[in-house]
C-alpha cells in the first residue's frame, strides 16, 4: 500500500503539489477561525441548576429542594453523573453530561425536566439554569472608579445600566455583579404598635405587596373619545410605602408609618470586595459562552465599554481587574517567536548537513503544511489554540524534520546501492 502511494505520488507530482497547496490554504483559514485562549478548557460538560430559598437551613434545603431535583433529573439521557450541594438558603445541582453531547441540547433536556420537578418543590420556589459558560469562562473582571458616588449608587449603576449593556456583546453568557449594596426599602417594625393595633407581620407583607402594583380597568368612552382606565400603584419613594393602609382601628385606617419606620438601606451581605487594600469597590465579571473565542470576546467587551463610558456619570470610569487577553497575547507572542526561531534553525541545519537544496526544500516544505494540517484538526475536533496545543505543535516540528531527514537519507542510500550494482544485476 505504501509503495503504491509513493509510486502514485512520483508519477503525479502536480496532483500532490495541488493537494499540498489546498491543505496549506485550508489550514490558513483554520488558523483565522480557530478560537484563541491562554489555557485549555478541561472543564466537564455540565449544566448547573440553581435554586434560592433564603433563610432556610442546609438540611431543609437538602430535603425539600436538592433531593427532589436530583431524583427527577436522573432520567435525562446521556448523563454521566449528578452532584447536589445544599447550603444556607441555596441549592446547587450539577448535571454532568457525556463529552460528545451538545451543551444547548443538554440545557433543553434539563429545562424540560425542571418543568415537572418544580411541582415537587415548596410553593414559590423556582429553580433556574446557570449561565452557559465553563469553569474557565471568567475572561474579564472590571471595577468602577467612582470616588464621589456611594456604594449603593455604584451597585445600582452596575446592575441597571452597565450589566445590561455588556450582556448584549456576542459571546457573553453573563455579567455577574459584585460589591456594593443592593438598595432596598426597609420597614423597621415596632412590635408594641403591632400589638396595640392588632396587626400581624403577614398583614404588613401582604398589603405592601398588593399595593406595589399597577391595575388595569375598562375602556371609558366620552365625547367620541375612548380613555383607558388604569390605577398607578408602583412605589416610587418611601413616602408611598408609609401611606399604605394595612388595617383599621376603630374605623380609623392604620398605615405603615403608624407601626413601622421606612428607610432606604442595603441588602444583607456575606462579604465585601476590596481592591488592593484601598477600600470597597463595585464591578462585574464577564463570563464567556461555550466554544467562543476568548480574545475576540474580550476585544468586543472593551469596545462596548468604551460606548458605555459615554453614558456614565461624570467622574465614573472603568478599571480592569483581570484581563485574560494580556495572558493570551503574551502566550501567543512567545509561541510564535519560538516557532519562527525553531523553523529558521531547522532550515539552516538541514541545508548545512544535507548540502543539497532539493533535499532540504523537500524537508523544509513539510513544516508549514504540517502546521496547517494541525490547525485543521484542531478546528475539526473543536479545540482552541492555547499554550498547550501550540507548544505541542512546536515540539512536533523536530519529529517532522527527523522523519524527513531519515527518509531522504534512506532514499539516497537506496539510490546509491542501485547505481553501484553491476550491469548484470541492474
How would you portray this structure in words?
A hairpin with a 2-residue loop joins strand 2 (79-87) and strand 3 (90-97). The protein has 14 helices and 14 strands. The strands form five sheets. A four-stranded antiparallel β-sheet has the order 2-3-1-4. The protein folds into three domains: 2-37 and 328-419, Multidrug efflux transporter AcrB transmembrane fold; 44-133, 2-Layer Sandwich (Alpha-Beta Plaits); 183-266, Multidrug efflux transporter AcrB TolC docking domain, DN and DC subdomains, CATH 3.30.2090. The radius of gyration is 34 Å and the shape is elongated. It has 426 residues and is α+β, with helices and mostly antiparallel strands.
In short:
The chain is an alpha+beta fold. The protein is 49% helix and 22% strand.
Question: If strands are numbered along the chain, what order do they take across the biggest sheet?
Answer: 2-3-1-4
CATH architecture of the largest domain: Up-down Bundle
- Average pLDDT, rounded to a whole number, is 86
CATH superfamily of the largest domain: Multidrug efflux transporter AcrB transmembrane domain
> Which fold name fills CATH's third level, the topology of the largest domain?
Multidrug efflux transporter AcrB transmembrane fold
Q: Which regions are unreliable across 5 or more consecutive residues at pLDDT < 50?
A: none
Number of strands: 14
How many helical elements? 14
Q: How many individual domains? A: 3
Radius of gyration: 34 Å
- The first-level CATH class of the largest domain is given as Mainly Alpha
Amino acid at each position: 500500500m505504501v509503495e503504491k502511494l509513493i509510486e502514485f505520488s512520483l508519477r503525479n507530482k502536480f496532483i500532490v503539489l495541488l493537494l499540498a497547496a489546498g491543505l496549506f490554504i485550508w489550514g490558513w483559514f483554520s488558523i483565522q477561525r480557530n478560537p484563541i485562549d491562554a489555557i485549555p478548557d478541561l472543564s466537564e460538560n455540565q449544566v448547573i441548576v440553581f435554586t434560592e430559598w433564603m433563610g432556610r437551613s442546609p438540611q431543609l434545603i437538602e430535603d425539600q429542594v436538592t433531593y427532589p431535583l436530583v431524583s427527577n433529573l436522573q432520567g435525562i439521557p446521556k448523563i454521566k453523573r449528578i452532584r447536589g450541594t445544599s447550603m444556607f438558603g441555596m441549592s446547587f445541582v450539577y448535571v454532568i453530561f457525556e463529552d460528545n453531547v451538545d451543551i444547548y441540547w443538554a440545557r433543553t433536556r434539563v429545562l424540560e425536566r425542571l418543568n415537572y420537578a418544580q411541582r415537587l418543590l415548596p410553593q414559590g420556589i423556582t429553580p433556574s439554569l446557570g449561565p452557559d459558560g465553563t469553569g474557565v469562562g471568567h475572561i474579564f473582571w472590571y471595577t468602577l472608579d467612582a470616588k464621589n458616588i456611594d456604594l449603593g449608587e455604584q451597585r445600582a449603576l452596575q446592575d441597571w445600566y452597565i450589566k445590561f449593556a455588556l450582556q448584549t456583546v456576542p459571546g457573553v453568557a453573563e455579567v455577574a455583579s459584585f460589591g456594593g449594596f443592593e438598595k432596598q426599602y426597609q420597614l423597621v417594625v415596632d412590635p408594641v404598635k403591632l400589638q396595640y393595633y392588632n396587626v400581624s407581620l403577614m398583614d404588613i407583607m401582604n398589603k405592601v405587596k398588593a399595593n406595589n402594583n399597577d391595575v388595569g380597568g375598562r375602556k371609558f368612552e366620552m365625547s367620541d373619545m375612548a380613555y383607558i382606565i388604569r390605577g398607578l400603584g408602583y412605589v416610587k419613594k418611601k413616602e408611598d410605602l408609609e401611606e399604605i393602609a394595612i388595617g383599621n382601628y376603630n374605623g380609623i385606617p392604620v398605615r405603615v408609618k403608624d407601626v413601622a419606620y421606612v428607610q432606604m438601606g442595603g441588602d444583607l451581605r456575606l462579604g465585601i470586595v476590596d481592591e488592593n487594600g484601598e477600600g470597597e469597590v463595585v464591578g462585574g465579571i464577564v463570563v464567556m459562552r461555550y466554544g467562543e473565542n476568548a480574545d475576540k470576546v474580550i476585544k468586543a467587551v472593551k469596545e462596548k465599554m468604551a460606548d458605555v463610558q459615554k453614558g456614565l456619570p461624570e467622574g465614573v470610569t472603568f478599571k480592569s481587574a483581570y484581563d485574560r487577553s494580556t495572558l493570551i497575547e503574551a502566550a501567543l507572542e512567545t509561541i510564535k517567536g519560538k516557532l519562527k526561531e525553531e523553523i529558521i534553525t531547522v532550515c539552516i541545519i538541514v541545508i548545512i548537513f544535507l548540502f543539497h537544496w532539493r533535499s532540504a526544500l523537500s524537508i523544509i516544505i513539510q513544516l508549514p503544511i504540517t502546521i496547517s494540517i494541525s490547525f485543521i484538526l484542531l478546528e475539526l475536533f473543536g479545540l482552541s489554540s492555547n499554550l498547550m496545543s501550540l507548544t505541542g505543535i512546536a515540539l512536533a516540528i523536530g519529529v517532522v524534520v527527523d522523519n524527513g531527514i531519515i527518509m531522504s537519507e534512506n532514499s539516497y542510500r537506496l539510490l546509491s546501492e542501485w547505481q553501484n550494482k553491476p550491469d548484470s544485476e541492474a
